[in-house]
Task: structure prediction
Amino acid sequence: MEKHYKLVLFDFDKTLYVGRFFALRLVLANLPFAMRVKAERQVRHSLSGLDLGGGEALRAEFASRLAALIGVSASEAAVWYADAYLKSMPRLLAAYPARPGAVEVIGELLDAGVRVAVLSDYPSTRERLAAIGIADERLLCLSAEDFGALKPAPRPFVETARLAGVAPADTLVVGDRADNDGEGAKAAGMDCLLIKGKRATGADGFEALPWEGVLGRLRQIAGGSAK
Result:
């Protein structure tokens, strides 16, 4: 029997859209600062799983580390990240529609009374969701960066469930990476279902299905909750 989940918590990047060549498009969109784009990825990786307690503390540490890599002040690094890099994302995401069936299954879950949240490491989650065609106002849209702890730190997962009014044990995390989504869900006491691929093979201790299988499982959850 399918477990009666009260919250489905989606990852964003590569989970709700495929994102082929998106990293390359980010570089091209910020071409005069291509090395900054590479450095941003390095810094983000170095902060993965760390909990700095709050968004301002994380952003300050991020800017400091980025500045050291690209040879500018922390304030200049922060301004470039917020005003150029992040603002280029929704524009580029407009070329990437949501995965087939994603909009529909989110609506089915919500209509059945299941809470649905999207937790991204990056900010402006609702704006980026709208860019790929997901704009349901009932969605809880959150950023791990705003919590001050990037995935797989468990606190953003736990806080998302708390804001949704749901216990972690009643939450299903849907993502595409065993190291971020899977480990974060496990540390938070949540179940996890991953989209099978290079970063979620099914041999890493987490259940992984092709996207069509994930859709089917989510529809079972919606159907069970609607009864």
